[in-house]
Design goal:
Blueprint: H1 5-10, E1 19-20, E2 30-31, H2 45-49, H3 51-73, H4 80-94, H5 110-115, H6 117-138, H7 144-159, H8 173-177, H9 184-188, H10 190-205, H11 207-212, H12 216-233, H13 248-251, H14 253-258, H15 260-281, H16 290-302, H17 311-321, H18 395-408, H19 412-419, H20 422-429, H21 446-456, H22 460-467, H23 472-477, H24 479-493
Antiparallel strand pairs: 1-2
Helix pairs in contact: 3-4, 3-15, 6-7, 10-12, 15-16, 17-24, 18-21
């Protein structure tokens, strides 16, 4: 195929930053270079088709950059420096009229970049991944299978730079919230912290309308609605801003189900943003130790061994945190924001989620697990299920799934959704809704019921409906139900038949080697 100018342009790699030597660290020479997009004809499709959303990313870049620069260069500034001055400028002037082109963050965070160029490079490389996946999903001339292949290629390209690539293993909350400097930023700057979490909600939330829209018109409408929701979120701050870090599996469930590895990378990216904010904001980290702590955190977020939890635990933790505490769903939302169930800035590591356990962090060389008041190290969980619940194979999980089925079918919107979906309608017609399964008398059509519930709960519109129902929401959010659903989805994706009861958790699929 003849190479076009467009493709030739995308293949150019620019070496932009020469040797940067942090002040006071002459022996720590850092050589950082930038790398261009993966070559593709559909690059910049998202920018061309969804300009307002794309420009917001440019404003987000300013928000992150000015935050780090102020925290690093003005450690004794009053909280109003960020909470009022910068917050008001960003929300009242910058976001309503965002820059047309991406910013060079190094021109804004000059001192910070000199101190930690490696961390900046990690963020920029992950942001390239974000933008290229938007482009793939925005490409109207690609089939879903072609999009799958493009995303896989982009992920291989991203991981080809292990010195800057985030791990695709989920990191537990001890890494983000269990260190001696943790929560320093959110404690002092609750509004700006909510704004950053709002950024992250939109960055992953935009994947949903791109995924669930059935045509270009629906995708345009969905993107516009999600952007509008973001602007509603930042009004009357911090009332409707996320109370905990938005997790991709909750905010973008359709995207996560199809591109799980990318979803995990984005959660790790957003988590490290919080960690660096805490390191810079914490008076417990001396100025001369800021770089050391940032590099230690960056290494942990790149490796596949420290502070790791399983995919099932990641999904269970996400469900336990609750979409209602993350700003709500980005599609199919109701006029009012969902009612939060956690305090603003709730700590997930050891405190507000003491019932949740994660794999104990395997300490990297030269590091020891954190252990300080309020953030105790969580002991390892050797079981395959969430504590306090029977394994996913238990009858309780199945009973809950069937109870969800009964309650969902009492909802007129969900019933209409079933009636318009031939697969769901067929499954429904094969079930005897008057039969209630028990341990001694299982439902003879239970396999069809499990297929029905699993398929129906994969629909983000249905999920939004569940979140608005006070009876359905706790059933759906139960970790045992979430684990059952995750296992069912994995069986379905692998082509295996679904069982008639909730199976035991399957081990995570081995990482694909490139």
């Amino acid at each position: 195929m003849t190479m076009t100018k467009h493709r030739l342009k995308t293949m150019l790699t620019a070496v932009a930053l020469a040797s940067l030597v942090p002040a006071g660290a002459a022996a720590q020479v850092s050589r950082v270079f930038e790398q261009y997009y993966f070559p593709a004809e559909h690059n910049w499709e998202f920018r061309d088709r969804y300009r307002m959303a794309d420009r917001l990313f440019n404003a987000f870049d300013y928000g992150h950059a000015i935050l780090y620069e102020v925290l690093y260069t003005q450690p004794n500034a009053p909280a109003s420096r960020l909470e009022l001055e910068e917050f008001n400028f960003i929300t009242r002037e910058l976001l309503p009229r965002p820059p047309r082109l991406p910013l060079e963050e190094a021109a804004i965070e000059v001192a910070y970049v000199k101190m930690a160029p490696e961390a900046k490079a990690m963020f920029e490389w992950a942001h390239v991944l974000h933008r290229q996946i938007y482009d793939v999903l925005a490409a109207e001339d690609l089939s879903l299978e072609e999009k799958d292949a493009e995303v896989a290629a982009i992920l291989r390209y991203y991981k080809s730079r292990p010195e800057y690539a985030f791990s695709s293993k989920p990191k537990n909350m001890e890494l983000m919230e269990g260190q001696y400097y943790s929560t320093a930023f959110r404690d002092k700057y609750p509004k700006f912290n909510g704004l950053i979490w709002g950024y992250h909600w939109l960055q992953v939330g935009l994947y949903e309308p791109l995924m669930v829209g059935r045509n270009y018109g629906e995708r345009q409408t969905g993107i516009a609605a999600t952007v509008t929701r973001f602007f509603q979120m930042i009004e009357d701050a911090p009332t409707n801003m996320p109370r905990v870090m938005p997790m991709t599996a909750a905010v973008a469930p359709t995207f996560t189900a199809r591109y799980t590895e990318a979803a995990i990378i984005f959660d790790n990216l957003h988590s490290m943003h919080d960690v660096i904010s805490d390191i810079l904001a914490s008076p417990e980290v001396p100025r001369e130790k800021k770089r050391e702590e940032i590099l230690r955190a960056a290494a942990r977020y790149r490796d596949d061994t420290s502070f790791v939890m399983s995919e099932a635990e990641w999904r269970a933790m996400t469900a336990h945190m609750g979409i209602q505490n993350m700003g709500g769903p980005p599609v199919g939302f109701l006029p009012d924001f969902p009612v939060p169930t956690l305090a603003r800035g709730a700590v997930m590591a050891g405190g507000d989620m003491a019932g949740m356990q994660h794999d104990a962090p395997a300490s990297p060389a030269g590091a020891t697990p954190a252990d300080h008041s309020g953030h105790a190290v969580v002991p390892p969980d050797t079981s395959a299920h969430a504590p306090g619940h029977s394994p996913a194979a238990g009858a309780g999980s199945m009973d809950q799934m069937m109870e969800m089925h009964r309650r969902m079918m009492a909802d007129p919107v969900i019933r209409e959704r079933v009636e318009t979906d031939p697969v769901l309608k067929s499954l429904m017609s094969n079930m005897d809704s008057t039969h209630t399964p028990t341990a001694s008398a299982p439902d003879p059509n239970a396999r069809a019921a499990m297929e029905f519930v699993t398929r129906l709960l994969s629909d983000p519109t249905i999920e939004a409906r569940i979140q608005a129902d006070p009876q359905l929401r706790p059933l759906w959010a139960d970790p045992a139900v979430q684990q059952c659903l995750a296992t069912m989805k994995r069986l379905k994706a692998s082509g295996q038949p679904l069982p008639s009861t909730c199976p035991k958790a399957m081990p995570a699929a081995p990482a694909h080697k490139h």
